[in-house]
Give the backbone structure.
Amino acid sequence: MAFKATRYFAVIAALIVLGTRYMNMNRKRINLNNEIGIWDTEAKDGQRYTVVTRSNETGGQFFLMHAYCSGQTQGFYPGKPCSPPLHIHDTQDEVFEAISGVLMVNLNGTELQIPIGEKVTVPAGIPHTYWNGGGSEPLQMWVRVSPGTPDEGFLEMVAALSLQFGGLNKVNPMQLVLLFADYGLTLADMPEPLWLAAKKFLVPLARLLGFRSHYPEYVSNSGQPQPVGQAAEEAVAAATTVVEPVVAEEADNVQGEVLEVAAAAVEQGQEDANAKMEL
């Protein structure tokens, strides 16, 4: 009796796996190949990622993205529009540069507001996230990642999946775990043993079920970001305006303070990582 029950269970499990795999492998996906920039909502009122320079254009040295985030975009953390989960790039450095709006960055537990026109560098191995801190005001920023491998596909896939399914909260969690793992990202909010277990067991299962970390239909055209209404046009105009000397001097002071705090946060993160390795 026990053997028969086990056999039936195995047959049912196999049918579920095969059915899910067939559905995932044959799903009709939105084709974004002719788009410059991918919105994560059909209404185009949320977040948009534009590939400006692809990794293969730089020989794998880096890739450059433009990110636009409205103040109404739901983030992973409540009250922090556009925020991704706290994460670590295993082998890549990431540079954020504020273009317009209020760019907030959590760098190893230290929250920083990045002045417009300034940059903050997040070295590999440092936990971080970012969000739009300007209320209803849109945020625009450059995102430069080096080296360029893994490539820019992660942000394209995330935005396209959100668009396809009507929000990331409706995307199968195994699909998201596979994306993070294949693009060299670690979920920092998750205990390390749990994340390692997820990579060891969930990633192979996700592949077996037909999930992929790259869908050709989701690859967009690269190019300069397109204006988003009047706000974006004003931001572009503001970016070309000559800054008065006094204002520039004040900006230099603010930049110095931000860089000092960022450097301290990075140094602490690297010390924490070294201590963990020694253990």
Notes: The longest strand covers residues 93-100. The chain is about 40% helix and 20% strand. Residues 231-251 have pLDDT under 50 and may be disordered.
